[in-house]
Design brief:
By secondary structure, the protein is of the alpha+beta class. The chain is 52% helix and 21% strand. It has a 5-stranded antiparallel β-sheet, with helices on both faces. Strands 7-6-10-9-8 form a 5-stranded antiparallel β-sheet, sandwiched between helices. The protein has a 5-stranded mixed β-sheet with strand order 12-14-15-17-16, with helices on one face. The longest helix is centred in the middle third of the chain and has 84 residues. 23% of the residues are buried.
Length: 608
């Protein structure tokens, strides 16, 4: 070794100072290069490398005579010499080519690198840890190094190992100090944020109208109480901290026992909600609504009771007022129901009034020919009576051929055979006309029947439709052809007289919607769920889109003033709803309108 003892001691001192200073931490690469250069100069080496343990991997930290790209790499399997030294924790002396050493057969130097003639490689051991290796190479002198160099170099390697380990520990210590400083700063930031958050929470709680509180279980000593307590109770917040029993003492005596019972069973129940009254110092009574929760720790031990108490005095007043209004509304509803029944009858009478002229016309026709026929019948009967009289006179002069001849002539004059035949026809027509009058009158009587809940019965809806069609015939016959497409319907449990009114309203509206001449189609059928349906479709002008949502509203009408009350469809809607049914509308302006009525076959009605 070329260095004397003083030089070595001076270098060791410098190496120690380097480990203690901050320069190694700031530029560790330069420190590793200085260490390697010192060893190369001491042993007169041409090339060398320094490997250090870094995050569980051995990394080439410095190299002289190595390609620059190898610096910072982990050692590979081709680094057989370094791997051998690390595994065996022993220094190694090599003379000659490495591939001639049986220990490193098939592990020659990297391609493109020069083969050293001699090499020394020492493990860097600190305590029980191998923290790296340091190697020096002589390129042209196979006998340049001896076992003595290997042994003396091991002492330097041990010193270097201690120095490097000390440097690394110093780096870790500095990092740890920096981390602690950063953590302390972060802790200060967290503390400041916590204080700001606590103040913000306190400000938020004090801005609430409700009392937020927390107390100890058992003693009921307050832990927290916001400022709203003073506004609600009329007493300073500090009084409640000084006297834990104050809150219970201001509870209305009528409610105090209930509050105490709820507090007593809170540990078992876990949470409670209750309403009670308190008395303020000025004697005013306040209604409070309180929600409280019993809080336990992870071991089940009681920690505190948390609660929120809100002033619901105004709500209570509103509730009492609402009860009063509900009573008034119920009375008004009863009156409205009575009025609705009157309106239904009024609408029915209005509809009947509109149809009166048509009904009178329908009755007038059969009555006309009944009267005419009965007049002719009277004349015929008079002739017959005159003939009978002549026959009676003939009885006394039965032998008078002249009279018999005049009798025969009169018989020919009055066409007695035709008279006998025609008198029967006249009577038949009279009977038919009378029957038609009877039918119209009966339908009108059925339609105008005032029904109630006691009139529920099984009815044939097709018969109801036919009866209604007969009533509205005068409204429809000049406007539309009636097309019936009846399906197979079962009898339905209903109020048939009210359904007749629905059918009449829809048929009259359909006729009024047709301006010139069109068709009204009536369809019927069944659907799933035990329900039947009736459809009434017209080819009229349809309903404007903006009116569709209002069409069932009371008093809404698109007819000119004086032509409608606006109650027909509203009454029809309520009748269908009364039957637990539906009435649906499909209308397009200029194309026509379809009303579809869906009814249950059997209505679940108590006592049916």
């Amino acid at each position: 070794m070329l260095f004397n003892e003083n030089k070595q001691l001076q270098w060791i001192s410098e190496l120690y100072q380097l480990g203690q200073s901050g320069s190694f931490q700031e530029n560790s690469g330069q420190g590793y290069r200085d260490i390697l250069r010192f060893i190369l100069e001491g042993f007169g080496a041409d090339t060398g490398s320094l490997t250090v343990l870094d995050n569980e991997c051995y990394v080439i930290k410095s190299g002289i005579g190595l390609p620059e790209e190898y610096i910072g790499r982990s050692i590979s399997d081709q680094s057989a010499v370094i791997r051998w030294v690390l595994d065996n924790r022993r220094a190694l002396l090599l003379k000659g080519k490495i591939d001639q050493d049986p220990r490193f057969k098939n592990h020659g130097p990297r391609s493109g690198s020069r083969i050293p003639a001699a090499a020394l490689c020492w493990p860097l051991i600190s305590g029980q840890r191998s923290i790296g290796t340091i190697c020096v190479n002589k390129l042209n002198e196979p006998s340049a190094y001896t076992e003595a160099d290997l042994e003396s170099g091991q002492l330097m390697a041990n010193t270097i190992a201690l120095a490097i380990d000390n440097m690394l520990l110093n780096i870790d210590r500095c990092k740890h100090i920096q981390e602690l400083v950063g953590a302390d700063r972060q802790l200060q930031i967290i503390r400041r944020r916590y204080e700001e958050s606590e103040k913000r929470l306190h400000d938020i709680l004090n801005s609430l109208d409700s009392v937020v509180w927390s107390m100890e279980p058992g003693t009921l000593k307050l832990l927290y109480l916001n400022d709203a307590a003073e506004d609600i109770s009329g007493r300073p917040v500090r009084d409640f901290f000084e006297s834990p029993d104050l809150w219970l003492s201001i509870v209305d005596p009528k409610d105090k026992q209930n509050v105490e019972n709820r507090l007593a069973d809170l540990p078992t129940i876990g949470s409670r909600k209750l309403a009670y009254r308190i008395i303020r110092p000025d004697g005013e009574q306040r209604w409070l609504y309180q929600s409280m929760r019993y809080v336990r720790d992870e071991n089940g031990e009681p920690l505190r009771i948390d609660g929120i108490t809100a002033d619901i005095t105004e709500h209570k007043k509103a509730e009492d007022l609402l009860k009063q209004r509900n009573t008034e509304l119920q009375q008004a509803l009863t009156q409205l129901q009575e009025l609705q029944q009157q309106l239904m009858q009024s609408e029915k009478m209005s509809s009947i009034g509109q149809l009166a002229a048509g009904v009178a016309h329908e009755i007038n026709n059969p009555i006309g020919y009944i009267n005419s026929n009965l007049t002719s019948l009277k004349n015929y009967i008079e002739d017959i009576l005159e003939l009978v009289e002549m026959y009676e006179n003939l009885d006394s002069v039965c032998g008078d051929a002249e009279r018999i001849g005049s009798l025969q002539a009169f018989k020919r004059q009055i066409d007695l055979p035709f008279l006998k035949e025609d008198v029967l026809d006249l009577l038949n027509e009279s009977l038919e006309g009378a029957e038609r009058v009877k039918k119209i009158v009966q339908d009108l009587k059925d339609f105008s029947h005032v029904g109630g809940d006691d009139d529920w019965q099984w009815a044939d809806l097709h018969a109801c439709l036919d009866s209604t069609l007969n009533i509205v015939h005068n409204e429809t016959k000049y406007k539309a052809d009636i097309i019936k497409e009846y399906g197979d319907l079962p009898r339905v449990w209903c109020l048939p007289h009210q359904l007749n009114q629905v059918f009449m309203n829809l048929l009259v509206n359909a006729a009024h919607a047709i301006e010139d001449k069109g068709t009204i189609t009536i369809r019927s059928g069944t659907e799933d769920g035990g329900r039947v349906w009736i459809e009434i479709t017209d080819t009229g002008k349809g309903i404007a889109q903006e009116h569709i949502n209002k069409i069932f509203d009371p008093f809404f009408t698109t007819k000119p003033v004086g032509k409608g009350t606006g109650l027909g469809l509203s009454v029809s809607y309520n009748i269908i709803k009364k039957h637990d049914g539906e009435i649906r509308l499909d209308s397009r302006a200029g194309e026509g309108t379809t009303f579809r009525i869906v009814l249950p076959v059997e209505r679940n009605e108590p006592g049916k």
